[in-house]
Write a structure and sequence with these properties.
Shape: globular
Structural class: mainly alpha
Order of helices and strands: HHHHHHHHHHHHHHHHHHHHHHHH
Number of helices: 24
Region (Disordered): 230-278
Biased composition (Low complexity): 235-249
Strand content: under 5%
Organism: Bifidobacterium tibiigranuli
Protein name: Riboflavin-specific deaminase
Radius of gyration: 24 Å
Number of strands: 0
Number of domains: 2
Amino acid sequence: MTGYSVDAMEFLQTVNQLERRFEEVTSPGALRKAMAEPESYDPVDHRLYVLAHDVFADTGWAMTIMVAVASFDGALVGQCKEFIQGCSSVVRKYGINVWLYGLANGSTVAMFTGEPSENTPMCIQTLHRSELVKRCRLKGPKRFGSKHNQQKVIREHCRQMHKLAAYTLMRWGDGSDPCIDTALMLLHEPAIGMCMLREDPKVLQVGAAPDMNFRRVVVALAELRARADEEFARESSAGSESGAESGSRTSLKTGQEPAQEPAQDDTQETAPDHVDYYKDPAYAQASARYLYDARRLIAGYRELWDRTTLDAAKVLVAIEQGEETSAGGASDDDSVWHNVVHLREVSRSLLGADNACELIEGFNERDVARFDQGVALLESMAEIVEMEGLPMLPIVMLDEQDGYMEKQAGVLPKSADDKRRKVSEIGEFLAGIVLARFPRGDVAKQCALALLDGEIVQYAKALRPMLRDDIEEVASAHT
């Protein structure tokens, strides 16, 4: 059993509303009106936009639906109708988890076959009108252009389908820990997230492999988190000297000696003005924990730099297969910060899954330049958290997205399509950070949903309930 419930009835009602609205705005009557009154015709139907994003989030399918309405292209309209009706049919017959598993699994299979899934939306990329018309009339992989472009489409579709699965569970799920855990895994460890969807008996009934070995990985990761929580609590209360030394503020790039500063307990020293902004002190504690983990993470990687270590991904595979019982090979009395599996998972929770690659792979390959690039990104994000608080991290990063993209890739995206994809990826990794780092509850859920849907204004609104009613006066007192 999955351990959570999903409101399929409300989901289906929304899909039905989407289908009806789509029929209305693409009807012959709507086309005649648009042609008769071109000056007053608005190609963007707000009601349809809201419904499309409610069902498909900020993905290529939501975009394709809107483009179909604006273009009145019969072939594209037909593809959208077929997909919407197909989604409704599967959910009505088998449930939401079966539908999500089918989409995620289909996109994953496409990664191996090299051919785009049949469920890949036409407007997963930005297309000129003439190119769109041409592709809509093609069949098979040719719909997505050259072989090189098909591979880009396949990768993007796979990312979007796992994102959609995570979004759907949060949007229509019961908000319980098992539900949020599955959504987080779909963002950070997609293969494990798909396995967690398979715990629904209906998914197994339609032919999914009944392999539950992934539970060993889930248990191992939970044990590592518990050990880290215990160590943090112990150092918070005792002011551990070792914690202060390894976590103190230094330049953390590889090969640089730590600056000589007075010893300080980094579990206690990170309490800036913004701690008074929240109704629940857990949000201020989440900011302090983010900074603590960031410093311990880099210190841990540096301490292991000259030692022979296992590859964390291979350790997880061995655990899943029952060949390894201790995650990362660390003994019980060894620091969790010398455990490569824990370092990998913390990297993802601090930076997001894709962003953490430079740090993780830089360490695995002992590539100083690549590792330092990951450190620089983490340092910049930690600085935002220290100055503004963890809840403000998404707002600042989305507001300064050009600077972030240049820091991450070295150059700004060249095309509008690349920039749109990058902005979507930023929202996705920030949603993962929110789910991993915010206190569990409705605020975290609504914030993550807003980020996955690319709605920064909605994110700011979702934050409001956790801020003190006199936030303006408190903020003014600190300035």
